[in-house]
Design goal:
The complex is a heterotrimer of chains A (492), B (124) and C (499).
Chain A lengths: L4 H20 L3 H29 L2 E4 L10 E4 L1 H28 L2 H23 L3 H20 L4 H32 L4 H14 L1 H19 L8 H7 L2 H23 L4 H6 L2 H21 L4 H22 L2 H32 L10 H4 L1 H15 L5 H15 L4 H25 L9 H4 L2 H19 L2 H13 L4
Antiparallel strand pairs in A: 1-2
Helix pairs in contact in A: 1-2, 1-4, 2-3, 2-4, 3-4, 3-10, 3-14, 3-20, 4-5, 4-10, 5-6, 5-10, 6-7, 6-8, 6-9, 8-10, 9-10, 9-13, 10-13, 10-14, 12-13, 12-18, 13-14, 13-17, 14-16, 14-17, 14-20, 14-21, 16-18, 16-20, 17-18, 17-20
Chain B lengths: L1 H8 L1 H19 L3 H23 L20 H32 L4 H12 L1
Helix pairs in contact in B: 2-3, 3-4
Chain C lengths: L1 H26 L4 H20 L2 H5 L4 E9 L2 E7 L1 H24 L6 H20 L3 H19 L5 H32 L15 H18 L8 H7 L2 H26 L2 H6 L3 H21 L3 H20 L4 H32 L10 H4 L1 H15 L5 H15 L3 H27 L7 H5 L8 H19 L4 H17 L2
Antiparallel strand pairs in C: 1-2
Helix pairs in contact in C: 1-2, 1-5, 2-4, 2-5, 4-5, 4-10, 4-14, 4-20, 5-6, 5-10, 6-7, 6-10, 7-8, 7-9, 8-10, 9-10, 9-13, 10-13, 10-14, 10-21, 12-13, 12-18, 13-14, 13-18, 14-16, 14-17, 14-20, 14-21, 16-18, 16-20, 17-18, 17-20
Chain lengths: 492, 124, 499
């Protein structure tokens, strides 16, 4: 009975994306309610799928009932469920926040289009999480690229258009590389279904090693551009900071991560001997280490709060890729766990920044003086985020760093712990001064938070902050789920 | 001599690679946004060509099955896929063009460097 | 029944102040008096809770259990043994007296609504460090305490305070990250970071050395060990005096406590001696002692001089733990007690002077002893104890440390102790002499001749005098309770460190 659920979720998302603009022309609130309901359905669906997978094991769904080598297959495994859950939760909370925030950021005439693009983006990302077919993955990637550029350029500012164009061009470059890689894999294996590709690769490896190597490097470049892996990150700071706040939150929290997930899915296909011979994983590791440090350095140089948060995402995606670079055991758990943790933390930080801009219009960090008194709850959430970014124990940021560090030791590369610590220190160097200027060294001011901020914006931020602390003390269910992910992917 | 023949056999792949590099180069080095977009399209076309070529079999026929005849057919799957790819490429091109129009309205130029300069000045 | 009460006590003494801090924060909106009263009551109750642990602790029992696992092998757990009891007892005692002192001292300060909840919360997290059953729990509370005391450091919110606070914060992060590194390595090597499993790492290796060094950085930073002491002389003087008393008197000791645990539980004595890691600590400790005392000489600001003196005194504590004789260890733990009492007395006295006269510079303190005899009397008593004059508690700890050094066959450390005591004398005695016998500047002669007392309020002087008297009592008293505790703790630790 639940066999149909994954495709139903996709259809609901896609269908709603078409219906919402029709509704929104007359009744905008109806469009919003439909959007929120669909996102909530995604969340619920993910939970149901989690239980289904837990009790019946991973299963596949054949679109249109075409059997695998030809038809498109959806694979509902632990990884897909994990990603779907993150997507549903964060997207719903961000949309709840967006109800009020969008009113002052984008025009009334395009708001229903925003909902539509948002749903389309979620459709594409859910599709990427579920699909088991390389070309289908490419199509979803392109949809996601257009939709994510769309939710940037929808704001009537010229720097949004510029940022979106830059993003679009580089993103197309990335998907071009990816498509070329898919072609090369198809050439040597004759299949697009990931399972069949995995079956064909060991034989193909001895016949056409160069094809596979080129494909692998193209995949790293292609997905690296889209996930903003250093040094392919150039588009990110502009795109994520110019966008309306809900878009920034979704882009930083979800969109760049989904490509990392795609990379995990594809890497799992390649035979392990290949990684033993070719230093692909080492390259990813080195890039991730550079990202973790360089991203933090970029962030230190920013004065615009949203730009700083965007740069910090470059560093944090470095941690995710570090886990992928080790591609085994605890480190991979750490990397995948950081997908969730960073999604929660960064979404919360972006929304908090959005609240500050909404209430005061201040974007520059140097003007934050006294904000802690005016917006105590928002800034407290920000403090939690800052602590989690540094990896103070008791916050979720600590747990992912703990696993990454354990994994680094397991693989006998303690150098990467130093990288993690250095990056954390730099995080502290730029996050804490914000908190300090906001809270200390100024005349006390009366709190105007209740008057300035609607509850529908404040509650998502506080929920995310609570989640940051909750999963700092109780990360067990997530870790257990990820252990099953690793087991089901045939990794240690 | 042998190499030349082998290259000749794989002419489509060779052409695709040459096109890909031309497109890639245009996209990254030209400052003019329209030219960037053209480069992007060339690059995509190259990939499509490459993909379709993987399904081509020398001497194969169009894959329309006729009962009782045993012909060699080309692989239809890549062509079908690339149809989707072309649709995606077209929509991205259209979207990029609309963005370029908007940028031109705002900045009065199509030169990416100039736009960056204007924006840097605006930020100060 | 009785044992279950004892089992519950460690959790209670940590959670009670933390919960109360929320209540105090909420109450402070309505009534200032209620807030102050609640703060004092909280510290008193906490002290009683700690003291109630005495019977099982003195009998040598260990209370240890896990509350819940966060990750496999990593969780929140409780462990109270004689060493943690010693530290908790002195912390709760000093905290209680300082909270009484705070009420009057802080009455003219701004931001007291922020001060009291944090003050109480830090007490909870400080006790949490001592009651932690594994390094993860310890780490959680350690970070909690370090980060929250930032608020105490920068309380005055002057530019100077903010700068010092920033330095403190960055050093705290560095220390925290080093601890993280060390704990990860120990976890990887031993599969556990619990304090209750005996020696965790018994084989020297590069990774073990790396862990040791990182522990040294993490805890040494907090304890003000050279070269990581740089934040201390800036951060301690800028804080309000009650907070400086706690920072110097108690919070430095959390670093020393961590190091004790590292040396005697994570590793063990034979390992450290064979691998010659103790050399690193010894050298750093000697430098810390001499540097702290020497630089204190050059300081003009009273509180800054006290802060540098703390650096020197923490050097003793760090030195004592790597001499590896039981007697040195007794002196070491007793010095933790003594220094907590002496330094908080000194800082509170300095605070009383600043509160009453606004004077911070030592050169301005001429004749202050005639104006504030009780305050300066307390100051004198504690300063003499600092130098190590016989019947006072400082003498007792130095005596044991020195004897321990001799037993360890390293008389050079005794010499270091003597030099440092001499330096202590050099920078404390002039203050006292000037205060009682010096001519006050800028006042008419006949006015200074007259004996005109103008003390700080009773609420400040009484805790101050109590602390000062305790310096005398715990040096002189036969059947000295703190000394007994130190002896038991030292024996306990020594047993643990000798597999």
């Amino acid at each position: 009975m639940f066999q149909q659920l994954p495709v139903i979720l996709l259809i609901i998302l896609l269908g709603a994306a078409f219906i919402v603009p029709l509704l929104g022309r007359k009744r905008e609130w109806l469009a919003f309610i439909l959007t929120a309901a669909v996102l909530f359905a995604l969340f619920l669906g993910a939970i149901v799928l989690l239980f289904v997978v837990r009790y019946h094991g991973p299963f596949t769904y054949q679109l249109g009932n075409w059997p695998p080598p030809w038809g498109i297959e959806l694979l509902v495994d632990y990884l897909a469920v994990y990603v779907l859950m993150i997507l549903g939760t964060i997207a719903f909370l961000v949309m709840a926040y967006g109800a009020r925030d969008l009113q002052h950021e984008i025009g009334t005439n395009v708001r229903h289009w925003y909902y539509s693009l948002y749903l389309l983006l979620l459709f594409a990302m859910s599709g990427m999480a579920l699909t088991n077919d390389l070309f289908n993955l490419f199509v979803f990637m392109e949809i996601s690229a257009i939709a994510s550029c769309g939710i940037i350029s929808i704001k009537e500012e010229r720097r949004c258009a510029e940022a979106a164009l830059k993003y679009l061009i580089l993103s197309t470059l990335g998907s071009g590389c990816f498509l070329l890689a898919v072609a090369m894999l198809y050439m040597v294996t004759g299949n697009l279904n990931l399972q069949y590709v995995a079956g064909g690769l060991p034989a193909a490896l001895s016949l056409y090693p160069y094809n596979i190597l080129i494909a692998l490097s193209l995949i790293i470049v292609g997905l690296g551009v889209k996930a903003a892996l250093f040094p392919l990150h150039v588009w990110l700071p502009d795109a994520h900071s110019a966008a309306p706040t809900p878009s920034s939150a979704v882009l930083s929290a979800l969109v760049i991560k989904i490509y990392a997930v795609a990379m995990v899915k594809i890497f799992a296909v390649f035979p392990a001997e290949l990684f033993a011979v070719v230093p692909v994983l080492e390259i990813v590791l080195i890039l991730s280490a550079l990202a973790a440090v360089a991203g933090s350095v970029f962030a230190m140089l920013q004065d615009d709060i949203k730009k700083m948060l965007a740069c910090s995402s470059i560093a944090q995606i470095g941690f995710v890729f570090m886990g992928i670079g080790f591609f085994e055991g605890q480190a991979l758990i750490g990397g995948l766990l950081h997908i969730f943790n960073h999604a929660v933390i960064k979404a919360m930080l972006f929304l908090a920044a959005g609240l500050i801009i909404y209430a005061t219009g201040i974007r520059r960090i140097s003007e934050f003086r006294g904000l802690g008194m005016r917006l105590p709850l928002t800034m407290s959430a920000f403090v939690v985020g800052a602590l989690a970014m540094v990896g103070i124990p008791g916050t979720s940021g600590f747990v992912s760093k703990w696993y990454l560090a354990l994994g680094a030791l397991e693989s006998g590369k303690p150098f990467y712990i130093v990288v993690i610590l250095l990056s954390s220190l730099l995080n502290g160097v730029y996050y804490f001064p914000i908190v300090i200027t906001a809270f200390f060294g100024s005349e006390p001011q009366p709190s105007t938070e209740r008057r300035d901020l609607p509850l529908s914006m404040l509650v998502p931020v506080l929920l995310l902050a609570a989640a940051t602390i909750f999963f700092g003390f109780y990360p067990r269910p997530l870790v257990e789920l990820l252990q099953q992910v690793l087991a089901s992917q045939g990794l240690r | 001599m042998d190499t030349v023949f082998r290259l000749g056999d794989n002419l489509y792949y060779l052409a695709a690679m040459v096109l890909f590099i031309i497109g890639f180069h245009t996209m990254l080095t030209h400052a003019n946004l329209i030219k960037k977009l053209l480069g992007m399209n060339i690059m995509e076309t190259a990939i499509f060509l490459f993909f379709v070529a993987t399904g081509y079999i020398r001497g194969g026929r169009a894959p329309i099955m006729q009962v009782g005849q045993d012909h060699l057919y080309v692989n239809p799957l890549p062509s079908a896929l690339i149809l989707t790819g072309i649709v995606v490429a077209v929509s991205i091109t259209a979207y990029a063009l609309s963005l370029i129009i908007r940028l031109y309205r705002h900045y009065g130029t199509l030169d990416a460097n100039e736009i960056a300069l204007l924006r840097a000045r605006e930020d100060e | 029944m009785e044992s279950s009460v004892y089992k519950f006590l460690p959790v209670f003494m940590v959670l009670f102040p933390i919960c109360m801090s929320v209540v105090i924060f909420w109450v402070s909106r309505y009534s200032e008096r209620l807030r102050n009263g609640l703060s004092v009551a909280t510290t008193v109750v906490t002290f009683i809770a700690v003291a109630a642990l005495y019977p099982p602790m003195a009998a040598g029992k260990v209370i240890a259990y896990t509350i819940f696992d966060i990750l496999p092998g990593l969780g929140l757990s409780v462990r109270a043994d004689i060493l943690s009891f010693c530290l908790a007892l002195i912390s709760a005692l000093v905290w209680m007296l300082v909270s009484i002192y705070s009420i009057d001292y802080m009455s003219h300060e701004h931001g007291t609504d922020r001060y009291y909840p944090i003050f109480i919360f830090v007490l909870g997290s400080c006790l949490g460090i001592f009651m932690a059953g594994d390094f993860f729990t310890l780490f959680v509370f350690f970070e909690l305490m370090s980060l929250l005391s930032y608020v105490l450091v920068i309380h005055e919110e002057t530019k100077e305070a903010l700068r010092a606070g920033y330095k403190y914060l960055i050093m705290t992060i560095i220390g925290g990250l080093a601890l993280f590194f060390a704990i990860v390595i120990v976890f990887e090597l031993a599969g556990s970071v619990s304090l209750s499993e005996g020696t965790l790492v018994a084989v020297p290796s590069t990774m073990a050395l790396l862990a040791f060094i990182n522990f040294l950085i993490g805890f040494g930073m907090k304890a003000g060990m050279f070269p990581l002491h740089v934040w201390l002389p800036d951060a301690h003087p800028v804080a309000p005096s009650p907070a400086s008393a706690l920072l110097s008197g108690i919070m430095l000791k959390t670093g020393a406590y961590g190091l004790l645990r590292v040396i005697f539980t994570v590793f063990n004595i034979p390992l450290i001696q064979e691998a010659r890691w103790d050399i690193i600590v010894l050298v750093l400790a000697v430098i810390t002692i001499l540097l702290g005392s020497a630089v204190a000489l050059t300081q003009e600001d009273l509180k800054r001089r006290l802060a540098y003196s703390s650096v020197g005194q923490m050097g003793y504590v760090i030195l004592g733990m790597v001499l590896f004789t039981e007697r040195a260890l007794i002196g070491d733990i007793f010095h933790i007690f003594s220094h907590a009492l002496m330094k908080s007395t000194l800082f509170l006295a300095a605070g009383a002077i600043i509160w009453k006269t606004g004077l911070r510079n030592i050169n301005d303190l001429h004749g202050i002893g005639r104006k504030m005899p009780l305050t300066m009397g307390a100051f004198t008593l504690a300063a003499l104890a600092m130098i190590g004059i016989p019947p006072l508690n400082g003498f007792l700890s130095k005596l044991n440390l020195g004897m321990g050094a001799l037993e360890a066959g390293a008389p050079v450390y005794l010499f270091v102790l003597l030099v440092s005591s001499l330096l202590n004398g050099l920078y404390y005695l002039p203050i006292i002499i000037a205060a009682f016998f010096g001519e006050a500047h800028g006042e008419d002669d006949h006015e200074t001749e007259t004996f005109k007392m103008s003390e700080a309020t009773r609420g400040m002087v009484i805790p101050l005098c109590l602390l000062a008297l305790s310096c005398l009592v715990f040096g002189l008293m036969p059947g000295n309770i703190f000394f007994e505790l130190s002896r038991k703790a030292a024996a306990f630790l020594f047993l643990q460190g000798m597999p």
